[in-house]
């Protein structure tokens, strides 16, 4: 009887060893570590998404109020030309620029670069006087890229059967961020109009700066922290076991 029990235990241990080797030597600790890393990536991406989306979606409304006031006093026709130029440059760069950048950069680097350029466009617009403001549509052509790239990064972290839930959650976040952006931007613009009429854009730049900090943290986690699901890591463990 004792011999049969010992034989069963030995068989169970051999089976466990075989399963570990087949799964790249992955242990319960490895799975837990991978879960923590993936959770951290999600949190950093969501925080970055929030801080970039809040100023982005209400920027157009603030620009209309800004251009109607001093020192611009633009007519509706001039405001329309500015908006058309901005949409055109963003659309062209959104297609051609993204395609070219993805040939030589990863999505997280593109998001970081686009956010930094977007911060510059907010700062320039806040301090712009007369003709300088026409540079804003060109500089801000990459402003929408970070949000798209973050969505792509979150999608790559999510299993195929959870993609619908992910995009539903992103849609809910979009709505919340838009509401927060509308309320906060209008209040900030009204409160700072006598101090500096473009101050609201500097606040938007500050929000984007916080967003890029979270993006850099995501890059750090992705590059330097061990992800036990990575193919290279699994290959190395299988080789070591052999």
TrEMBL record:
Transmembrane feature ranges:
42-59, 79-101, 131-153, 165-183, 203-221
| Alphabetized InterPro entries for the sequence | MFS_trans_sf
Q: Residues of the signal sequence? A: none
Membrane: present as a keyword of the record?
Answer: yes
| Keyword terms, alphabetized | Membrane, Transmembrane, Transmembrane helix
Q: How does it sit in the membrane?
A: Multi-pass membrane protein
Please give the superkingdom of this protein's source: Eukaryota
Q: What is its main location?
A: membrane
Q: Where in the cell is it found?
A: Membrane
Q: What is this protein called?
A: S46A3-like protein
């Amino acid at each position: 009887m004792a011999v049969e029990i010992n034989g069963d235990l030995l068989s169970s241990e051999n089976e466990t060893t075989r399963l570990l080797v087949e799964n790249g030597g992955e242990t319960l600790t490895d799975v837990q570590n991978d879960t923590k890393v993936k959770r951290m990536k999600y949190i950093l991406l969501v925080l970055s998404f929030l801080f970039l989306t809040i100023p982005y979606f209400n920027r157009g409304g603030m620009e209309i109020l800004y251009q109607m006031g001093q020192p611009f006093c633009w007519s509706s026709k001039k405001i329309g030309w500015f908006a058309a130029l901005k949409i055109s440059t963003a659309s062209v760069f959104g297609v051609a620029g993204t395609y070219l950048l993805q040939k030589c950069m990863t999505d997280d680097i593109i998001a970081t670069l686009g956010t930094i350029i977007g911060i510059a466009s907010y700062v320039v617009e806040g301090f712009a006087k007369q003709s300088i403001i026409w540079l804003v549509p060109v500089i801000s052509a990459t402003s929408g890229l970070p949000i798209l790239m973050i969505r792509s990064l979150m999608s790559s972290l999510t299993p195929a059967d959870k993609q619908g839930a992910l995009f539903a959650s992103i849609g809910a976040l979009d709505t919340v961020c838009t509401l927060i952006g509308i309320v906060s931007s209008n209040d900030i613009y009204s409160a700072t109009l006598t101090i500096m009429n473009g101050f609201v854009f500097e606040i938007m730049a500050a929000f984007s700066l916080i967003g890029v900090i979270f993006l850099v943290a995501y890059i750090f986690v992705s590059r330097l922290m061990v992800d036990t699901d990575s193919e290279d890591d699994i290959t190395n463990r299988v080789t070591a076991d052999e």
